[in-house]
Amino acid sequence: MLFNSVQFFAFFPIVMLLYIVIPQKAKMYWLLVASYFFYMCWNPKYIVLILFTTVVTYIAGLLIGRAAETSAKKFWLVSAIVVNLAVLFTFKYLDFFFLNLNKILSLAGIRAVDKPFDFLLPVGISFYTFQAIGYVVDVYRGDSQAEKNFFKYALFVSFFPQLVAGPIERSGKLIKQIDDLGKRRLWSYKGVVSGLGMMLWGLFVKMVIADRIAIFVDAVYSDIYAAGTIETFIAMLGFSVQIYADFAGYSAVAIGAARIIGIDLMENFNTPLFATSIADFWRRWHISLTTWFRDYIYIPLGGNRRGKITKYRNIMVTFLISGLWHGASWKYVVWGGIHGVYQIIADIVKPLRDWIDDKLKVQKNVFSYRFGKVLGTNLLVSFALIFFRAGSLKLALKYILRMFTKWNPWVIFNDSLYNWGLNHFEVGILFASLVLLLFVSIVRYKQQLDIGEFLFKQNMAFRWAVFILLLVAIIVFGEYGAEFASNKFIYFDF
Amino acid sequence: MKSRITKIIAALGFVIIAYLCLAAVYGPLSWKDTSGDKISSLTQLYETEDNLVDVAFLGSSLCYFGTYPAYYWEDLGIAAFDIAVSSQDRISGYHHLKELLKTQSPKVVFVEAHDILYDKQQIIGNEYRNMLSMKPSINSVQLITEGADKKSWLDYLFRFPIIHSRYKELKKNDFELRAPNYFGRGEYMTWVKNGQGVPPYADGAPFPVPLDAGQTKWLEDLKALSAKKGFDLVLYFAPGYMTEAEQGVADSVAEYGQANGIPVIDFNKIRAEINFDYDNDLIDSGHSNAYGARKMAEYFEQYLSERYSFTDHRGDSRYWQWDKDLEWYYSAKAIHELKSAEAYEEYISMLSQSKDVLAVISLEGDYTERAETDYYASLSKLGMTEEEYRAGGKWIYKNGELTKVHGNDLNEEPFLYQLSNTETLKISYNGDYMHGENIVINKDSYYSLGDFMSILTYDCFTGEVIEVRGF
Chain A contact for B161, CB < 8 A? Predict the structure, then answer.
């Protein structure tokens, strides 16, 4: 069930209505039922997987919590991680593994090995697996208590607003709130209003902006030999905005839906388009995943405490794993690797850059300096995303080659850019929406308020007007419904 | 407590305003099928006062091409109505009839039985029309759940997922409260002749093929509806091409009718009786034109006169839509004849007989110098003097009156004429008939460049430009 589907528009109000009227103690169980139903709408069979992950990590948590010896704790921790990663590997990376194995075997002249299974990638498997692994690590470290109530823990793993594409929550924060579900009323007027604002904004950003840009981007990526420098360059930047609008839109709906219920989910995006460096970008982009990698991979590897070389190794390892987490393909690994290289180079050349700035007396507290850095960061991020978006590593390289060798500036002037799926009117809608996105981003950047909180602070008439305008814009100009096919959130595939 | 009540009232207020806004947006975006190509007669049914329809015709395009309620009104004052849509299938046919019976109580319902051949809509556009043009009700929900794929149910129930993308194609009509042909009675009028001969399986002994469960159920459902609602059910097959298998089904339906006391008329089998001409009474292999519809109407009128007595409603103001429908028929027929005229003499002659046509006649260039462009004899019949003719200029001809509106003088101001609330006709002169845009409606030119006599015709009945002709 997609957040932008008619089913969700029927599902969520029903869930909320019953959630409000049922007794306090039943609320948690109701949300658990709703969450499992939500997941089963995609593929009922795969509910077994999430149940398996839940049972394994639940038992592991209890065993770690009860074990007196560190070695025993470590044994249960490693066992839980291995079992969960094995499931993830089987369903997500087995194809990739056999593909590469057979390539190596063929180089050695050995017959290809048949893949033993053929699975469909379970939606959201990377998200809930990481969330569950995070829990057992937290219990092992003593950051969280092992949860004794299985249903409470099951809801932590499967809470429907963040089940299929995050944010990847930390056990300490979410389990505590689930615990409160049975004790006191969590939903509030403020939560409902600001949550509704978040949901509407998220749907607007996803359906009006991301899916509209996708029409142009998909057209260029699927026919790169008809595109020149201008189209490929615009599509490169376009995908950068698309993936942000797509995923940030999804996260906003998830956070908004949870907020209406009375659960506070962690922030996932903090104006990443305004990042002034790659490191700054990763502090603002997919925050729940970035901090997960920081806390559970980068820091355990030693972080930046053991010298430059180890630090650079840790950065590369973290980003390569992050790339692989995004998908079973070398193109994602390269994408992650590029970000690692960006960070290492930035660190190496920092003294030189500072020296040049100093010699040239560059003013750093001016708009133009910050703007230049933002522009540069966005270009680097967008460039790396070519590997993310292209069908394969080979196609990404062809795309880049085309971008730098087919100079065709005249297409800007002869209207042929409108032949890539977006006519003048659609481009007009897109630009108006992007202006709105920029405005909301500036509010977020300056006031550190998300759109829900910002709207809640405004007068009721203004708030209503914004809600209604967003609702009408989504319903009329959103890309959805009978004629719309590519209506999946990009991060559902991870 | 007070604060809580205020919040609840505020929330309710928001929901009401949001609903009103969405309702306002729904109007223009709603599914409309009024271009005439594929008719949704439900729109016209909803405009009809309750309990006026005497006789209903149910069916697909074979019904709305072949049954002109205007004929029944003109001849007998019977209020007939076509509840017909393109490629109507069994499910949509049944629910369309149920929709009609909510507000109307016809004595007789003639069902064009080609519906029996289709269990569901074959074309997605037709499915959209059937599902979306019916007002929300239990009947429309039943139509959706029985006629659409399960995965589309919510789309049809909420409607916006399908209609929202119409923002790309909105036209003037979408913002008007009523459809342009809201007074129509379901028919599609055409005088095109392109028939393709007598169908091959019309003759010979019947060879019924067994009806499947769905087909039998449909007939049983219609029979039950007829008994419940108290109308007489008559099944018929319009004249036209049928495959061998289809003819077999028609023969089975005839058998079913005989066994159940339901009259079944197969027009292919009585073609001689009605003198049906398969070359000239059809627009293609199976759809009747106005000539074919006339012949079927005569048969049905006789059938009705022999078995029923109907009040002649002509003159009753409640039946104004049937009056207007007949007027529309006359207008459409006149326009057809006008458009069929090729030589200017014939064209101008037809113009003088067309009641609802406004014409703009323009004379420019050295037409008086050439014998082959001596239009005067014809134009004089519209009331043009020889002096006016020689001077040239531009005239508006409407309701038998010719009015000169521009003298082809470069210094003369353009003549402006309000055709409708939004359409302004501008008549001017720029001194060059080869390049002039001298007859313009809003921003569109309707001037026949390079012709000495340019005639724009406009249908005042439907508010549409008919054509521009140059001679």
Answer: yes
Tens-place pLDDT, residues A26-44: 999 999 999 999 999 888 8
Same domain, A80 and A217: no
| Second CATH level (architecture) for the domain B32-330 | 3-Layer(aba) Sandwich (3.40)
Supply the range of the domain harboring residue A167: 18-186
Q: Is residue A256 part of a domain?
A: yes
Residues A426, A377 within the same domain: yes
Contact B161 A7 (CB under 8 A): no
- Active site (annotated) includes residue A339: no
Check: CB of residue B347 under 8 Å from CB of residue B341: yes
Return the residue of A nearest to B26 by Cα.
A476
> Which candidate from A7, A468, A475 shows the least CB-CB separation from B154?
A7
Burial class (CB in 10 A: 0-12, 13-18, 19+), B186: buried
Name the minimum distance, in Å, from the CA of B31 to any CA of chain A: 14
How close, in Å, is residue B164 to chain A by CA atoms? Answer: 5
Q: Are residues A83 and A210 in the same domain?
A: no
Compute the half-sphere exposure of residue B409: CA atoms within 13 Å on the CB side of its CA: 9
pLDDT tens column, A449-493: 899 999 999 998 999 999 999 999 999 999 888 755 444 455 555
Q: What is the ipTM score, two decimals?
A: 0.79
Residues of chain A with a CB closer than 8 angstroms to some CB in chain B: 6-7, 9-10, 189, 425, 460, 464, 467-468, 471-472, 475-478, 480-484
SS3 of chain B: helix, strand, coil, percent, to 5: 45, 15, 40
Is the domain of A25 the same as that of A71? yes
Residues contacting residue B405 through CB under 8 Å, at least 6 positions apart: B393, B394, B395, B396, B415, B417, B427
Q: Looking at the structure, do residues A170 and A307 belong to the same domain, yes or no?
A: no
Task: Tell me the mean pLDDT in the region B282-307.
Answer: 95
Who among B7, B10, B21 is closest to A468 (CB)?
B21
Q: Of the ranges A325-329, A434-438, B32-36, B195-199, which is most confident? A: A434-438
- A202 and A344 both lie in a single domain: yes
Reported pTM: 0.84
- Given a cut of 80, whether residue B372 has pLDDT beyond it is no
CB contact under 8 A, B164 and A478: yes
Residue among B7, B128, B154 minimizing CB distance to A6: B154
The answer, for B12 touching chain A at a CB cutoff of 8 Å, is no
Q: For A174-222, how does the pLDDT look when each residue is reduced to its tens digit (9 = 90+)?
A: 999 998 887 777 778 899 999 999 999 999 999 999 999 999 999 999 9
Quote the distance between the C-alpha of residue A444 and its chain's center: 19
**pLDDT above 50: residue B36:** no
Q: How far apart are CA A29 and CA A34, in angstroms?
A: 9
Tell me whether strands B453-459 and B464-470 are parallel, antiparallel or unpaired: antiparallel
Are A195 and A332 in a shared domain? yes
